[in-house]
Design goal:
This protein is α/β, with parallel strands linked by helices. It has a single domain, classed as Glycosidases (TIM Barrel, Alpha-Beta Barrel). Helix content is 30%, strand content 20%. The chain contains 6 helices and 11 strands. Strands 4-5-8-9-10 form a 5-stranded parallel beta sheet, covered by helices on one side. A hairpin with a 4-residue loop joins strand 6 and strand 7. Keywords: Signal. InterPro entries: GH.
């Protein structure tokens, strides 16, 4: 069966930035896309089989249920093989050393945009070490989002060192930030303007492209086997 999916490239652009050579200018060039793309998918054609680790689950640090006695067994029974240390917007406030949230630099804007909800109202309920303990008990791998919004490359590198050199967790997948495509609206980020719209989105993309390389270099200097990945930049081009 063949289906046709029509995407308006001017309406939505998704830029996956990796450290393998995609520059900020390439991301900025995405703004020039105005054509309509037609994608036909044959659902019966197997191109590649997904690995078992593709079945995973986010585990927000504000959820006390992760450390419940039954949780690890339930994760194993569900066939979930990758646990994601990721808390949405709180990821970019999280201090892994103290297991606390930093003050939100955009608190007034974020609280208003989220209908009165404050990131500070949901503090961490478990530590990174407890998260890894549950993953091991469930036989799952882990993926960790580092703090991009209020963090630094040195802080991220120290987390890699602690996880893999000091504790031996063997975390291979590290993602730089979370939901950075929304930084000009509801995500904490001290690096981008708060105006929103086309100009802010373009600045955000170029800024993130530069910084993701700096983060990745610092993290790989600690553990060359670690894979540093970008969060997907998705924004709406207005006008």
């Amino acid at each position: 069966m063949t289906e046709t999916l029509v995407l308006g490239a001017k309406s939505v652009v998704c830029a996956m930035i990796t450290v393998l050579g995609l520059s900020s200018s390439a991301v900025a060039g995405a703004n020039e896309a105005h054509s309509v793309t037609v994608v036909r998918v044959n659902a019966k054609d197997v191109v590649r089989r997904l690995p078992a680790t593709v079945i995973g689950a986010d585990d927000p640090v504000w959820n006390p249920g992760l450390t419940a006695p039954i949780t690890a067994r339930r994760i194993w029974q569900a066939g979930i093989e990758d646990l994601n240390f990721d808390s949405g917007g709180q990821t970019d406030l999280y201090d892994w050393r103290t297991n606390t949230l930093r003050p939100d630099p955009d608190a007034a804007r974020d609280t208003a945009a989220l209908g009165g909800y404050s990131y500070a109202s949901a503090p961490p309920q478990y530590t990174f070490d407890q998260f890894e303990a549950v993953a091991r008990a469930a036989g799952a791998h882990t993926t960790v989002h580092v703090n991009y919004g209020t963090g630094t490359p040195a802080e991220a590198a120290a987390w890699v060192r602690y996880a893999n050199r000091e504790r031996g967790y063997g975390v291979r997948n590290w993602i730089i930030g979370e939901e950075v495509y929304n930084d000009q609206y509801t995500e904490p980020d001290r690096r981008v303007p708060l105006t929103g719209g086309r100009e802010s989105a373009a600045v955000n993309a170029r800024c993130y492209a530069r910084n993701v390389i700096a983060f990745s270099k610092a993290m790989k200097a600690v553990d060359r086997r670690s894979r540093s990945e970008s969060s997907c930049l998705l924004w709406t081009l207005l006008g």
